[in-house]
Amino acid sequence: MMTLPLSPRVRMQANPQSEGHNPVMLREVLALLQIHSRGTYLDGTFGGGGYTRAMMAEAPAHLFALDKDPDAITRGQALQDHFAVNDRRAAPTFEIRQGNFRDMATLFADVAPFDGIVLDLGVSSFQIDQAERGFSFRQDGPLDMRMSQSGQSAADLVNQADEATLADIIYHYGEERLARRVARAIVAARQEEPIHRTGQLAAIIRKVVHPDRSRIDPATRTFQAIRIAVNDELTDLERVLETAPGLLREGGRLVVVTFHSLEDRLVKRALQAAAGRVARPSRHMPVTLAEPTNMYRLPHGKPLTPSEDEIQQNPRARSAKIRVLEKTRHIIEPLEGTL
Known about the structure:
The protein is built from 14 helices and 7 strands. With 339 residues, the chain is α/β, with parallel strands linked by helices.
């Protein structure tokens, strides 16, 4: 397992927990981005701003952030205003913009190329902790789950989709083996009364899915599935993975933090494809380059994972993985093994 040092400046100046957000694998993300004072960097999933604040403390670089959640934009605007007024270091800048990261090529056409882009996938701690946002099965709140706070809500999906559609969503996006049973229970329950609260939905799921050895709440996988469907997360991820590498400067890096197997598989395949590596039909066959004049490389042959200490301090890090892609104009020799 790889452990990377956290600079004293980050430890002293960027305490994410004091802002109500504890970013996962912060040490590794900062080390991989290799932030320097002349660089331009993008936090493509601002959320609580934990990575951005730490990046600010690391070096007086030019920093940009992006998020589609209006609440995150409000937090980022406050940071932007504070930074502009109070920070007097040499030539730093910070700006946050609102939008879907799938559109970052358009949203930052006037800024690119970047020396580093970081994407922290999934739901943010702020969204989970605010019951009124409807992401959590541990707190009762309106069944919403919309990251952008617009469009179809989770309640709309749960109350309107037919049983087969619900089962497909829960099975494919939640990897819930009892998806048909859960879908059937949801349809039966909504015939009695509409499902408008997270507590209602969680109770329905727990009646038909019982705890197993993993100790994960029985509602976890279904809530994940509905959230992914409501926000079209995997489609957005596929699109940003197609465009983000092209926004990097030579030597720039795309750093992606994943939290479940669905998104991690997409990231793994996309970065392998960008680096010109092809999937092996057999584990006994060597990895090959698709083109000898590849423009990208994989700095690490395997994903980085959190230390046991971090998992104890921040349980959200338990399933996290980091994958990284670097842009280069040199011919790259293939790495042994796969990401």
